[in-house]
Amino acid sequence: MPPRTRKRGDIRVWSVLRAYFRAARTYSWLLAVALLSSILTSAAIVISPLYLRKAVNILSGTPTDAALHAALMAVVLYVLIDFSSWVIQRLNDFAVQRVEAHTMRDLYNDAFEKLFRHSHEFFISNFSGTLTRRVGRYARAFENIIDNLLYSLIPTTLFAIGVIGVLTARSFILGAALLLWTIAFLYVQYRMTLRVHKLREERSAADSDMTGGLSDAVVNHAAVTAFATLPRERTIFGALVARWHKLTVRTWTTDLVQYMLQGFFIILIEAGLLISAVFLWRSGSITVGDFLLIQIYILNLAWRLWNIGANVRHIYDAFAEATEMLDIIELTPDIVDKPDAKALAVSGGDIVFDKVRFAYHEGQNVLSDFDLHIAPHEKVALVGLSGAGKTTITKLLLRLYDIQDGAIRINGQSIADVTQESVRRAISFVPQEPVLFHRTLMENIRYGRADATDEEVIAAAKQAHCYEFISHYPEGFETLVGERGVKLSGGERQRVAIARAILKNAPILVLDEATSSLDSESEHLIQDALATLMEGKTVIAVAHRLSTVMKMDRIIVMEQGAVTLSGTHDALLSHEENLYKKLWEIQAGGFLDTAPAPVGVV
After folding, report:
1. What is the pTM of this model?
2. 421 and 447 together in one domain
3. Do 550 and 422 reside in the same domain of the chain?
4. Which of 26, 48, 126, 209 has the smallest number of Cβ neighbours within 10 A?
């Protein structure tokens, strides 16, 4: 299922902060160093101009040896404080970089793990490109938030407090004016940010949609080329880009308005304080050094407050992006292990479907009171028309979905009471359309058993008749197969999938149209490999090509989610008219009266 729906603008600030704090608290000492160094640096930036003010006041008086010595001391202290600030800032950089790198690593790993706890339905309901982008944004948003907090918001707050305190000590009027101006400036910033953060979240969502649409088109580029539908895809993608463009222009226009207001406020306070300072100097309330001090403070504070608007916007962007992934992390998976779930113990490998009811969508049952018993080491084939529920049975056995009623048991243990991982480790699955990793052939086959040696991988490849085509590649088993295995033919991909199953050697084998993409010659070769693979295992084979299931112990005919007939190939053909007999006659071309169809008949 897709992530829960949120209202636009519902950026979960505190939820994100709690999640990030849990991730970063392992490195709390680094955070403490970063925070302390940020405080000390801000204090130094407030204090150092006081010594420059002192030096200017001395130099504006009568030049004497004592005045020269005092001025030099003031300048030296000013430089020393600035140098100390520089050293502390480098310590701050070191601490911030380390805590960000370590925490981002943990966030990437945690997001990956939480993402893959979700069900098969969740992944087929969401764009892979969008999910990938959310994982990356979640980790990078932490860097954005920490950078803006420790390099902007906290130092600016501390600097503003220090500056207002110093100016108040020199002149209550100047301090009060700067305080009121700072409050007004921040209030306007806050109100403007509230107005634009909704736009920014919508723009972020539009950006994710655009990425998902692009990913969808790229993955299906073969279909786009084959159907000559580039203009149609360009229109679809163009609509996504147009929405992103519209929201981007609106967001940037709002930013420009905010910059304009910021500039006006800065000019206003600079003019007001400097004009006031001139009159205060005339009355003897402040010195020439104070006038310079005010200018330094105003320029520094104005620059910081100017940037704080952009920093706040970046933080809101980061919170919006982090919220997208946090919704997925906090979304309860459709399928979860019970708290006391133990590993499945498999000896014989008998399988029981006991009065199972299942529906992909409520009210549309695929299986109703479905019963099926497969004895240990029995080889069973499921046949029937498309939509009869054959593949659904394999998905339920793998627990890709949970059933609504009834039970599925392996060796007397309900698969709902044991861990999902142990169920899937007990089953070798060869799907109808195998998808490979963009890795080497060696790595793809070894995926069946991670600790397999190269010799075992090669042996499995030979059994699955992969070796024939692999040996023709210049790089052999080190050949990269491309994204989703696109560099291989459909039959080659299926043989790699069979090699994986051979290597895994699990007690239960599930074949979902495992030979559907093979030509007759390849199918004949694979039948030998499958015969070896099936020895001593409980086997469920879903097949439309009936030539692949002739020698199975039992063939189960399914119609509309129910078992309508069961028996061996010969027994089913000896029955009066039935679905299996009709399908066989169609596939055998009407030659059943003369001889049984050989292996490889299509």
Report:
1. 0.70
2. no
3. yes
4. 26
